[in-house]
From TrEMBL:
Superkingdom to which the source organism belongs: Bacteria
UniProt-listed Pfam families: Methyltransf_11
Alphabetic keyword roster: Methyltransferase, Transferase
GO molecular function, one term: S-adenosylmethionine-dependent methyltransferase activity
Protein name: Methyltransferase domain-containing protein
Domain Methyltransferase type as annotated: residue spans: 49-137
Gene3D superfamilies found in the cross-reference section: Vaccinia Virus protein VP39
GO BP field: methylation
InterPro entries named among the record's database cross-references: Diverse_substrate_MTase (IPR051052), Methyltransf_11 (IPR013216), SAM-dependent_MTases_sf (IPR029063)
Amino acid sequence: MSKDIIHHAAAAGYVGAADNYVRGRPDYPPEIADWLRNALAITSDAIILDLGAGTGKFTPLLVATGARVIAVEPVEQMRNKLAHALPQVEALAGTAEAIPLPDASVDAVVCAQAFHWFATKTALAEIYRVLKPGGKLGLVWNLRDARIGWVAKLDQIVNRLEADTPRYYTGAWRKAFPFQGFGPLHEQHFSQGHTGTPEDVILNRVRSTSFVAALAPEERTRIDEQIYALIAAEPSLNGKEVVTVPYETAAFFTVKEMQ
């Protein structure tokens, strides 16, 4: 899979950040299981595409539905981790603009932490192509809750490095909608906490961010130092072996209209 069809931040960052991605990224709230069953109508006889599946952080939730799950991921290092952890899932090289599946072959497409990378009319046309009529497209993101003071400070450290990297919070991904053939977007939000050591839930989470992972080593060290200073200055974090980062999960779905 050629890197020139993947955003440069993902191509450069995720190649080396797969381990940090596994350790640092939060799981999804338990309500997502009900959302998959009720909002996306996923049943055990369905075929589901996990598009931009990464290391497979979301994939076990799809497997748990009993459906047949196919994962498509362009970054080889991430796809290999998924294939090793979930051998029952068919893991394919591909992109949202070139999905290696036949027309009208899947009941649902789910993009977890991914759609902002390929939020284009071209990608939506390809997703539309592989969905069966009446099939659903689900979009899911885990987001740090920046209403908490120290989380907002952490986001300030990270956000000033983003350059042209697509991200959920900018809202630019919404410009891909409306799209002819898909109905309106339906939206739900859930709250959760990501609990673990500061090294994992704060440091490794930031290190797993594509544009941070793509920095030169000395620049990554400087970011680590800023985060350590933030932890030391925050009473709720300093000296704690276990901390909780508050998250909000945003979940959207749209339906491919019957022809």
